[in-house]
Every structure is written in structure tokens, then in C-alpha cells.
Amino acid sequence: MENIVLHKANTRGNANHGWLQSFHTFSFANYFNPERVHFGALRVLNDDTVAAGMGFGTHPHDNMEIISIPLEGDLEHQDSMGNKTVIKKGDIQVMSAGTGVRHSEYNKNADKEVKFLQIWVFPNKRNVAPRYDQITLNEDERHNVLQQVLSPNPDDEGVWIHQDAWFHMGKFDAGVTTDYTFKKEGNGLYVFVLKGAVSVNDQALDTRDGLGIWNTDKVTITATTDAEFLLMEVPMEIE
């Protein structure tokens, strides 16, 4: 029997720092909910809006796979590996923190907000050499189909991380249905709706709702309106 956990958008943790408005699906910083610490290897799903010209100063990470998906605007990244770059909507960025890395993230523009998802996944290898990558995706390739944006395999579509995880994005017209088959036995799937409304195995989800499903090998996703969403398949057991 499949298990599900539903996280409605308005039940997420919220931190308003003035320059930063952040919604936390899972416990993060000053938000702690013992029932929402992680979903398997998915540790953090933050929905962040950064004011014009503002950002996160240099800070450290280690032994975490960190994925950033910009939704609006331009985010400037700088790190201790010597990378200085900008990511924008259509890009996906990954950083394997491994033995340790320091980085900063700033809104590059002085006249508009930047919105992005910050996602942390527990790695299956500790103390790896830190690594950075970013790619630009063709968003047309997710129109009414699932576009793979992340996997464990450097030779596959999208970026890769040190974990048996697969991420897909979809931009579906109302009424379009697809099945998603899990890539690995024992994994779970976390669905996050970016825009519009979808149903997952007949469970209705609206914008910014999240749904975790495990103990199954396939789900059916239907766009009930024009919709955009992110699928994150991750191991339920953390090594």
C-alpha cells in the first residue's frame, strides 16, 4: 500500500528577513517541525525570494548536494573553488559541498526580485572533492512531457549528484496526463507544484503544494489547469 504525505503551501515554515522571504517545506534555520525534517534523502526545499541587490553573504557547506533552480531573475554565485557566474530561469545549478566549500549568492539586479528553489539532498558519499556545475535547459523539452534535469549519472540528461536521485520538470497544458515510473526500488517521489494545479494519483495539489509518495513504483500525474511542477525521486533510506 502506497504511503503519502501532503504539505499544503500555507503550512510551510516562513522566514521574512525583509530582504529575503523564504518558505521552508522542511525544518530549516529557525523553523523546526519534528514531523517535517526531511523526506528520505531530500533534506531542504526552500522557496526563496531575494530583494533587488540583496543576497546571502559568504558561508560554508559540507557533505551536502545543493541544487538551485532559478524561477525568476538573475542569481549571482561566487565560491571558494573560483567560480563566479550567474544563473537564471531555465538554468539548474549543482554544488557537491563534500569536504567543504564556501559560497555567496546575490540578486544581480538592482531593480527586480530573484526567485529560486534551494534544494539540499543528503549524499551517498561523504567527504568527496567539492564540485560545481551549471547547465542551461531547453524549457520547450518539458512541454507536456517530463524533462530529466538531474540524475546520478554524469552521462545522462541534466546535472548529476552523489545520490541515487532523479529530478524531472514538467510544463503541462490542462488535461494532459502522464505516468512516472520510479527509477530505483525503495525510492520515494516528492512532487512540488510551481504553478497551477495537478492531481497525483487523484490527490489534488495547488500552486506550491508538495506531496511525498513511497511504497509504490509508479504514479499518475494529471494537469488540472495549465501547470508547472518539479518531481524529485530520492532514496527513502539515508546511508
Describe this structure in words.
The chain has 239 residues and is mostly beta strands. It has 2 domains: 12-136, Jelly Rolls, CATH 2.60.120.10; 139-235, Jelly Rolls (Sandwich), CATH 2.60.120. The chain is built from no helices and 22 strands. The chain has strands at 3-7, 13-16, 20-24, 42-50, 55-61, 65-72, 74-79, 84-88, 91-96, 101-107, 114-121, 131-136, 147-151, 159-160, 166-172, 177-181, 187-195, 198-200, 203-205, 210-214, 218-223, 227-235. The strands form 4 sheets. The protein has a 7-stranded mixed β-sheet with strand order 1-20-17-22-15-13-14, with no helix packed on it. The chain is globular. The two termini are 24 Å apart. This is Pirin family protein. Belongs to the pirin family. It comes from Flavobacterium supellecticarium.
Low-confidence stretches: none
Q: Beta fraction of the residues?
A: over 45%
Please trace the helix and strand order, writing H or E for each element: EEEEEEEEEEEEEEEEEEEEEE
Q: What CATH architecture of the largest domain would you give?
A: Sandwich
Question: Features of this protein?
Answer:
single chain, 239 residues, mainly beta, Jelly Rolls, 2 domains, seven-stranded antiparallel sheet, globular
Task: Describe the structure concisely for a colleague.
With 239 residues, the chain is mainly β.
What is the secondary structure topology, with strand pairs?
Elements: E1 3-7, E2 13-16, E3 20-24, E4 42-50, E5 55-61, E6 65-72, E7 74-79, E8 84-88, E9 91-96, E10 101-107, E11 114-121, E12 131-136, E13 147-151, E14 159-160, E15 166-172, E16 177-181, E17 187-195, E18 198-200, E19 203-205, E20 210-214, E21 218-223, E22 227-235
Parallel strand pairs: 13-14
Antiparallel strand pairs: 1-20, 2-3, 3-4, 4-11, 5-10, 6-9, 6-11, 7-8, 7-10, 9-12, 13-15, 15-22, 16-21, 17-20, 17-22, 18-19, 18-21
